[in-house]
Amino acid sequence: MATEAKLETGAAFLTTPVTEAHFLTPEQFTDEQKLIQESAATFIQREVLPKAEEIRHQEPGLMPSLVKKAGEQGLLMIDVPEEYGGADYGLVVSALVAHEMREASFAVAHGAHTTIGTLPIVFYGTDEQKRTYLPRLATGELIGAYALTEPGVGSDAMGIRTRATLSEDVQYYILNGAKQWISNAGFADLFVVFAKIDDTKHTAFIVEGAWDGISTGAEEKKMGIKGSSTRTLYLDNVKVRVGNVLGEIGKGYKIAFNILNIGRLKLGAGASGGARAALDMAAKYSDERKAFGHPLHGFGMIKKKLAYMAADVYAAESLAFRTVGMVEDARVAAGEDRQAQLAAIEEYAIECSIAKVYGSEALARCVDEGVQIFGGYGFMDEYPISWAYRDARINRIFEGTNEVNRLVAAGTLFQRAMANKVDIFSVFPEIDSQVSSGTAPDFATAETPAALRESVNLVERIKRAAIYSVMKGAMKFMTTIRDEQEFLEYTANQLINIFALDSAVARALSAAREGGVDARAHELMAQVALLKHFNETRAAMEGVLTMAFEGDERRQEIARVRAYLGDPEADIVPLQRELAGIIAERGGYPLK
Amino acid sequence: MNIVVCMKETPSTTAEKSFTADMRLERRKEDAIPNPFDEYAIEEGLRQQEKNPGSTVTMLCMGPATATDTIRKALAMGGDRGVLVTDPALAGSDAISTARVLAAALTKIGYDLVIFGNAAADAYGGVVPSAVAEFLGKPLLSYASQLGIAGDKATIQRQAEIGYNVVEAPLPALVSVVKSINEPRYPSMKGIMASKKKPLDTFSLADLGLDAATVGGAAAREKALGAEKVSTQRKGEIYVGNDGAADRVVAFLVEQKVL
Ligand SMILES: Cc1cc2nc3c(=O)[nH]c(=O)nc-3n(C[C@H](O)[C@H](O)[C@H](O)COP(=O)(O)OP(=O)(O)OC[C@H]3O[C@@H](n4cnc5c(N)ncnc54)[C@H](O)[C@@H]3O)c2cc1C
Q1: A154 CB under 6 A from ligand 1?
Q2: How far is A198 from A164, CA to CA, in rounded Å?
């Protein structure tokens, strides 16, 4: 929210009590933002989805023509500054557009162009580079791509082997190497290429596709997003003007990592939209299809699936747009300087990684249950849910694998704690005494609606028990933390669920105060999300304690955390039934 | 050519409807959209502008003060400026007082061609275009499924049960359009950006020189007496077996003029 004067610190969700949403929620989108969202959705509906089949078969020229059409509509200019022909609408709008993409291959083409293809130039380009390239990227006259991955290196982006050698006349760098799985490679006009100068200095270059020495391999045959162009990019003595070095020599990895924060966040927003589409398809089908004489959504097990899907969408959407709002506020508050903006965005590296992991995994759960609800038809090519299932899979792999993002989330937490940027040390003594005594105060207030009292209490107890277990683990493993990935994973899983649940419950609290026809749906989705994630969050805490302790001490620590957390009193079954009823009645995700 | 499109703000067709004690539709800002029938009028206005270079398109709306957002939505599709007529005294207007106000506004802003949708999705009265024509003393070309402007003459095809009639009138003229006339565009992001910079004027009754006693609830001669939900249950007929079923389906399709 642009109105919020004080910026939230990164990871503050862990130590701040859950209250009504003091962050951006979909309920707060402005009319203009909603109009743009609708415009993007209509574009996809009218121009892209009718061609889904042709897209999947990579009909020659089709994808670039759709990207250019999106450019005519203005959908490529959102993040480009006005002085370079853009709209400068900011991240809220670009995340909303990502959320509406619906056709996954087109979404990848659009994202590769607008995010990783364009943003490096927006944030790191010189004025001349921006003048040369941004206006044409903003219209789609040029289509962008991003070339970091190589056959030998993916996650380990520092280990790239593509070489850049300064020419004798010092006018050019000569690039040699191969970049693998480059989205849009089949038709891109412009590549942001990462290479090492003198085999040491990791550096980014702006490379035009038409230059001598550039070629691409065959289209990869993929499991999903079949319509997205994915090829190897070969660089064979490509002469790149020194003026096309992007950012500082030796600091290319910074571009790679900083732009990724935004890419991850947009992926999270996009994945929540994809998950919602899967739910909508499944809800509609569960009304049309009858088994044993009843529509599918009359069956308890189908109700559970629909309710879980809605809760997943709700949490994914809530945390993604919460992060979008925080990041955008910080970016705007940082002023005109792009480096200052990136530093401000980096504050939320944990949240950006969580948005990516939770979004892609919520999507995975939704498309999986979506196929299940469709039964055998879900396994058939004619049914879009089967494509949603295939297309979803890539989201857990690119923009940093979910493993890498878990390492980022947990690792950053400890770095921030050591630098006193998140309060887990100072709050620990009080939490320690609370957990040790097994008594938690009542965290609900007089204003907390009855239906959400337990949720508020559970979220707060989970946060404290998580800080307790993570601190116990950290004390044990601090010096060897890099070798204790399982501990980092348990830590990340707690962070991920806490951010999701805190965001969902806070949004539901706001909706309860607002009242209105949707308040009950908000409440139910938050409660179902909470109850369904409760056990796995507790398991992650116990995992840490099991790693860190042995014998009686282990039993005692686990017993303490269990006693402190308590068991939810609410029965999830009636809640999921009621929620499924609303989904059936509204024919899909209950919120607009 | 000075083209004016009259557009109403209506609740979204999917919004839950409720009524006040005196049977007025409760209008919630979050449900407000441009009347879906008027989208065809807006589209036709924009197409006529494209065909007649140098023309301007004004979106004219009578409605609550918040209807500026709805006008902006129309301006995101295109056009040059918006005019909202709003006044507390206008609440409860019936078709005739609405027409009186629109006629006064049209006189104030000037027009060569005025385009309407053929009804509003909330009240379905469908009399406003003819009443405005009456107040202005100008011809109305109603139910147009095609519109052409040549010189100072407007010609339409009026949709009829079988085929169409060709009707013409001298400009300035009013035209109401039916859905088959075009396929409305949707606002592009560029259009939305541009709409923010377009002028949007607001007129009160006083600005139009109208007496509050002659319009709004005060002058309304229509009274809504009741409202009931339409049952949307679909009626299905199932013909089983080979015995004559095909003939009955064919007979049904013939009866419905599908075949
Ligand atoms: C369809 C598609 C499109 C793509 N588009 C682009 C693009 O446009 N531009 C681009 O530059 N790249 C692109 N990529 C590459 C993508 O970003 C990489 O695949 C990704 O970064 C993972 O690298 P990798 O495949 O080499 O896996 P690896 O790095 O080899 O990882 C293999 C497995 O090991 C795990 N792992 C790796 N390191 C660790 C660690 N330290 N700790 C624990 N686990 C670890 C990973 O999580 C993974 O499960 C694309 C890939 C695909 C499939």
Answers
A1: yes
A2: 7
What number is the average pLDDT over the span B44-72? 95
Q: Which atom of ligand 1 is nearest to the CA of A402?
A: 47
- Residue A469 in contact with residue A14, Cβ under 8 Å? no
- Domain residue ranges in chain B: 2-219
Q: Which domains can be identified in chain A, with CATH numbers?
A: 12-143 (1.10.540.10), 145-248 (2.40.110.10), 253-400 (1.20.140.10), 404-586 (1.20.140.10)
Supply the pLDDT for residue A3.
44
Which residue among A149, A192, A264, A391 is best mutated to probe the pocket of ligand 1, counting the most ligand atoms within 8 A of its Cβ? A149
Cβ atoms of A126 and A204 within 8 Å: the answer is no
Q: Which residues in chain A come in under a pLDDT of 70?
A: 1-5
Tell me which range, A551-565, B20-34, B209-223, is most confidently predicted by mean pLDDT.
A551-565
Residue in A103, A328, A399, A557 annotated catalytic: A399
Q: How far is the CA of A404 from the centre of ligand 1 (A)?
A: 9
Residues 6+ apart with CB under 8 A from A93: A33, A36, A78
| Other residues' Cβ atoms within 10 Å of the Cβ of residue A23 | 24
pLDDT confidence of residue A433: 94
Task: State whether residue A36 sits within 8 Å of chain B by CB.
Answer: yes
Residue B186 touches chain A, beta carbons under 8 Å: yes
Fold of B2-219: Rossmann fold (3.40.50)
User: What is the mean predicted confidence (pLDDT) over B158-185?
Assistant: 94
Closest-CA residue in chain B for A73?
Answer: B188
Burial (CB count within 10 angstroms: exposed 0-12, middle 13-18, buried 19+), residue B101: buried
Any CB–CB contact under 8 A between A45 and chain B? Answer: no
Task: Report the pLDDT value the prediction gives residue B232, as an integer from 0 to 100.
Answer: 66
Q: Give pLDDT, residue B215.
A: 87
Rounded to a whole number of angstroms, the distance from the CA of A121 to the nearest CA of chain B is 22
* A566 Ramachandran zone, left/alpha/beta (phi>0; psi -120 to 50): left
Band (pLDDT 50/70/90 cuts) for residue B216 is confident
> So what's the pLDDT on residue A4?
46
Contacts with B196 from chain A: Cβ below 8 Å: 32
B215 or B170, greater pLDDT: B170
3-state SS, one letter per residue, for A211-244: CCCEEECCCCCCCCCCCCCEEEEEEEEEEEEHHH
pTM greater than the 0.80 cutoff: yes
Cβ of A74 within 8 Å of Cβ of B16? The answer is no
User: CB–CB of B11/B27 below 8 Å?
Assistant: yes
Q: What is the DSSP code string of A498-562?
A: HHHHHHHHHHHHHHHHH-STTHHHHHHHHHHHHHHHHHHHHHHHHHHHHHH--HHHHHHHHHHHH
Q: Is A192 helix (H, G, I), strand (E, B) or coil?
A: strand
Which residues pair with residue A175 across a beta bridge? A164, A238
- Residue A460: how many CB atoms within 10 A of its CB? 19
What ipTM does the predicted assembly reach? 0.83
**Which of these, B202, B197, B194, B2, lies nearest to B83 by C-alpha position?**
B202
Task: Place B171 in a pLDDT band, splitting at 50, 70 and 90.
Answer: very high
Helix, strand, coil fractions of chain B, as percent rounded to 5: 35, 25, 40
Cα A482 off chain centre by: 24
Cis peptide before A151 (omega within 30 of 0): no
Which H or E run includes A67?
Answer: helix A62-73
- Rounded to the nearest integer, the mean pLDDT of chain B is 90
Q: How far is CA B164 from the centre of its chain?
A: 21
Three-class SS string for A126-140? CHHHHHHHHHHHHHC
Tell me whether A15 touches chain B (CB under 8 Å). no
Tokens in use for B164?
């169409």
**Is the separation of the CB atoms in A580 and A454 below 8 Å?**
no
Tell which wins on pLDDT, B238 or A75.
A75
